[in-house]
Amino acid sequence: MVVAQRIYVAGPISADTKEEMDANVIIACHITGELIYKGHYPYTPHLLHQLKLKKPYEFWMEFDDQWLRQCDALFYIAPSPGANIELARARELGMRVYFDLEEVPDVKEERR
What we know:
- The protein is of the alpha/beta class.
- It has three helices and four strands, in the order βαβαβαβ.
- 22% of the residues are buried.
- The model has no long low-confidence stretch (mean pLDDT 92).
């Protein structure tokens, strides 16, 4: 039996332009939706971008680490300084790491 997982979505957020940042968020949202369709429970830090809180980078890395430790797996979109730190942390914690949606098991049929 395949069990639904809490999956942390890690990938670039910051960028040189607003358009590039928006594109990073759109990619993360697409992956988040696909993980939900597969029957999982993703946590996507990119969605917090909409809060527009003025907090330092270190705050967000600590904030995200608290959520990462609650997850069962990490989905790694692409390299970035923060995503690379999260990937290393997930490996340190012995978490499953996915690099492609095809690797993520489909549990939606199991939950009906």
